[in-house]
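> call design_seq(struct)
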């Protein structure tokens, strides 16, 4: 009791209220498994309503704030950083915290950087990865114990997109921030697909990603968490729209990645020849065209090329992907890819892996 009173007196001395958690159960999302790895990059995938965002805010961001450490909120685009999006996180906390957290949003409309001040001290620093890389490399926050990228994965069915070279833009900020303090970065997501730029950059094989899996590398850890059965029963009783067979339900409730269920992965049939080569985020991919247009096989077969020494034209869409024999494809040349665009749009193709299919979904946006 004496230690608690001393802590409360310290809070009053520094002009801070004693924010207390009033109710938060133990059947929602648990971070202990990935936390135990002590890696700087931690990714957690789970069903919707598992309480991953609220759990992070209550179990990590709030205690850190009470210790004088702000949390960094990562956003994808500058337009995503708004007063309403920032207050959304505070409102999630207020469902379980008394007194309610109230504060002011201050920031720069030019860069998209913003800070949420509570009791005149930063609770959140907000950083959009879509701002200029020059500014990302010069942005860092002292004493930031945690960083959160909520809703990491995009949903292509809603026409959402990752940034061009998004992981490299993230690293521009990450490297600078880690020089200032040992911030731990958390990436939370519902499982839309087993492939995204972050897991791809970490070298995670999509075939290893199964419900309940726990993977780790030198600087990252990943868990696809099973929801607590007690929570499942509670949610089913409360949600009359619970349906695991809808596109939304597969992702939100059943932990079945909707983008992977309709994947086009398989071995290459006979009769295909290399038609085009593309560079995407450091890798080369080949588009192979069938010689039998009236047959039953798909029009194109897409595969990652392991041998980059062969002499051929390789189309790139970003200067970072330029290499020997590579050219930047501009808008005037892209009518040349009409057959590939049609094949992707009509799903008339096969791929050698989920990584390749992910790459060509992204390449399609450039064609």
């Amino acid at each position: 009791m004496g230690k608690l009173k001393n802590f409360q007196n310290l809070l009053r001395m520094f002009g801070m209220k004693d924010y207390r958690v009033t109710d938060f159960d133990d059947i929602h999302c648990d971070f202990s498994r990935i936390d135990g790895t002590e890696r700087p990059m931690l990714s957690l995938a789970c069903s919707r309503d598992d309480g991953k965002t609220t759990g992070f805010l209550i179990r990590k961001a709030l205690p850190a704030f009470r210790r004088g450490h702000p949390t960094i909120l990562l956003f994808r685009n500058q337009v995503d950083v708004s007063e309403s999006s920032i207050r959304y996180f505070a409102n999630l906390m207020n469902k379980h915290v008394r007194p309610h957290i109230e504060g002011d949003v201050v920031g720069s409309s030019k860069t998209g950087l913003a800070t949420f001040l509570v009791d005149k001290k930063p609770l959140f620093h907000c950083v959009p990865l879509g701002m200029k890389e020059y500014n990302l490399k010069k942005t860092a926050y002292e004493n930031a114990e945690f960083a959160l990228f909520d809703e990491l994965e995009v949903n292509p069915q809603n026409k959402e997109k990752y940034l061009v070279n998004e992981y490299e833009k993230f690293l521009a900020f990450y490297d600078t921030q880690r020089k200032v303090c040992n911030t731990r970065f958390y990436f939370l997501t519902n499982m839309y697909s087993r492939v995204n730029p972050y897991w791809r950059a970490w070298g995670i094989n999509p075939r290893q990603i199964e419900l309940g899996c726990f993977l780790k590398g030198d600087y990252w850890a990943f868990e696809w968490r099973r929801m607590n059965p007690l929570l499942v029963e509670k949610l089913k009783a409360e949600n009359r729209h619970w349906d695991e067979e809808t596109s939304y339900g597969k992702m939100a409730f059943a932990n079945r990645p909707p983008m992977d269920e309709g994947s086009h992965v398989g071995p290459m049939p006979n009769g295909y020849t290399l038609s085009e080569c593309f560079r995407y985020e450091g890798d080369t991919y080949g588009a192979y065209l069938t010689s039998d247009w009236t047959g039953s096989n798909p029009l194109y077969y897409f595969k990652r090329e392991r041998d980059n020494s062969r002499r051929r034209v390789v189309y790139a869409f970003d200067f970072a992907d330029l290499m020997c024999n590579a050219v930047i494809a501009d808008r005037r040349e892209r009518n040349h890819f009409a057959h590939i665009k049609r094949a992707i749009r009509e799903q008339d193709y096969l791929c050698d892996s989920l990584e390749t299919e992910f790459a060509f979904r992204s390449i399609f946006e450039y064609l």
